[in-house]
Amino acid sequence: MEDTILVPRSESCGGPALKLFNDNFINSIKFKNLPKKYELIGKGSYSRIIISEEIENDKVIKCIRKSSVQSNNRKYLINEIKIMKQINNDLIVKMFDLFQSEDSFNILLERGIMDLFVFSKNKQYSKKICNFILRDLSISIEYIHSMSIYHRDIKSENIIIFNENEENYQFKLSDFGISIVDNDAGIGKCGSIGFNSPEMSNKIQFSRKKADYWAFGAVILEQLLGQHRFVNEWLMLYYDRKHKKLSNLYENALKIFKKEGFDFDWSILDNLLNIDPNRRYLPNNTKIINNFTNFLIKNKSI
């Protein structure tokens, strides 16, 4: 099944995904009024996120304008709903309800603090935060892949932080609008610039699972470098298309950052961002947890 084109980071692309529901599914969504009083806490190109005293404090409503749900947008909505109905994992944002009102389709979701992109603005590298992300995303990504679900748009904007206390942070995967339930072989580019794996091409097949691993590695790299260094095309600029490999510029660039004194296990990125998809693996969670526990003990956090 073919994937689609590369798009800017702030947007998402689609392509054939699930065997889509027809209009009967849309029409079957129950009608229910939105809260009369609410607070807008987020806004996108075709949706908004609201909270209200009329719903539980730990939930938000994602309101998707009906006027925007046409053609491709409609299938993305249906795609996300079907996938979220299948998922039951503590490290993936939960969907509790689905209803429609006069002007919008509405999804009742688990409420987090903020997304990782907002959280990371102007922040310096934190080994503790990186280990939390590695621990949690390794589990959620492995879980969806076990169900033949491929996210295709892993980036910091789609990772939601839960729990106010830093010692109990959880990082949950969200936004399955352009995810796919299919076999592992994909063709074409899909997702956000800067998070696409180099082998993604309109002409050759690639592993969707290994492409998700690469995007995960790019999220970690962004945490290490900071958003001011990790520009959209950061990794792609260092990709030597002629020889189908990462150029020496990439290795030299990483060497500079490795010399800056980051307390980080660089072998994790060497695996996630390996130019050879067959040598690209998720981090060993047992090793991460053990190393992290030792780090906390050493720093008297536990």
From TrEMBL:
Domain Protein kinase: 35-296
One term under GO cellular component: nucleus
SUPFAM superfamilies on file: Protein kinase-like (PK-like)
Entry's Gene Ontology BP terms: mitotic DNA damage checkpoint signaling
Example of a GO MF term: ATP binding
InterPro entries: Kinase-like_dom_sf, Prot_kinase_dom, Protein_kinase_ATP_BS, Ser/Thr_kinase_AS
Keywords, comma-separated and alphabetical: ATP-binding, Nucleotide-binding
A UniProt-annotated Pfam family: Pkinase
SMART domains: S_TKc
UniProt name for this protein: Protein kinase domain-containing protein
